Amino acid sequence: MPVPATMRAARMHAVGRPMSIDTVAVPKPGSTDVLVEIKACGMVPNLGNVLANWTKWFSHLPLPKLPAIFGLDPAGIVVEVGDQVIDVKAGERVYVNPLRSCGACQMCRSGERTRCRYFTFNGYFGFGPDAQKIYDLYPYGGFCEFMTAPQYALVKLPDNVTFEQAARFGYLGTSYGAMKKANAVAGQSMLIDGISGTLGLGAALLGLAMGMTRILGTGRDRKLLDRVKALAPGRIEVHALGDGSTAQWAKQCTDGEGVDFMISALGPGSPASTMLDSLKSVRRGGRAVNVGAVAEVLPVDVHWLMDEQIGLIGSNWFTSAQGQEMAELARAGLLDLSVLEHHRFPLEAVNDAISGLQTRNGGFSNYVIVP
Ligand SMILES: [Zn+2]
Q1: Distance from residue 297's CA to the centre of ligand 1 (Å)
Q2: What is the 116 CA–ligand 1 centroid distance (Å)?
Q3: How many A from CA of 150 to the centre of ligand 1?
Q4: How much distance in Å is there from the Cα of 102 to the middle of ligand 1?
Q5: Which residue, of 1, 106, 253, 337, is most buried by count of CB atoms within 10 Å of its CB?
Q6: What's the CA-to-centroid distance between 287 and ligand 1, angstroms?
Q7: How far apart are CA 213 and CA 189, in angstroms?
Q8: What DSSP string runs through 200-219?
Q9: Ligand 1 centroid vs 112 CA: distance in angstroms?
Q10: What is the pLDDT of residues 102-142, one digit of tens each?
Q11: Residues paired with residue 238 on neighbouring β-strands, in sequence order
């Protein structure tokens, strides 16, 4: 099918205002870029509210110049490749990692693109004042029909991963990147604070895929916790927040030792005290990685960190190579994404989709725009 000259795109013309469906030209890929026909794009839960409050909450994280096409987690089919692209072909199914960076600095050259000063989320926001330079190069998020993407951003999808499942790779990869920073290896124990949420459930599925033998998880909703435990009753244990100390419970579950590492994936509004409690569930020499939304300042006992040799690490996102590792885990049947419940919205319903009014089953719900 020839690529059309124009396409539909949901564009935001003013921060916090509804997006409008506009007709725009289909872009041409640059020499080392590809053009992807978008089949599904994952959504940040409650994105509308987040954007409406952007300047209040996140003024340090620049949004693209408006009007802009948002959409963080696209998956689709390559329909055109630039004249210097040799390892990607039209027809390939891909997830487009929205991580953009300069490609030339020391961090980029060592494969650590999230540590580049230009690190920017295509279709969402940037991490520094230079983000607009990246948006000028890549102005297309996933809430449209076609997008350009650099070849370094592509994760090739196996046939057994659907586009809707791939549209969850951003959240899955965030948890995966955190587990890599924790040096996770098979046979270990882990604690996931917020196991029934979008990030937490991803960490649990990855923990099962990567051979974690004891997966402990906390959460608020007992029904959802039971559902998570049912994924692997012999390996997953759950603990409702409010039912006593998480640290004491975790030690009991691990013969007094503590877990090898902890992933903090708590939702917005969670107090620092919850995280401080879970931090103490980590064994001597273990690691705690934060990918969650605790916003309070944490009064950390650094002497305890020293005495117990605990690593406290902040992490966000993941490399495209790590995305490919997840795709391979799924190809082999180790990473089981069949538990996700997809809620599909056409592009025209983008404003309903981002309003956050949908009923939710925690991390089991997967919201996707299907252009
Ligand atoms: Zn760089």
Answers
A1: 30
A2: 4
A3: 14
A4: 4
A5: 337
A6: 27
A7: 6
A8: HHHHHHHHHHTT-SEEEEEE
A9: 8
A10: 999 999 999 999 999 999 999 999 999 999 999 999 999 99
A11: 217
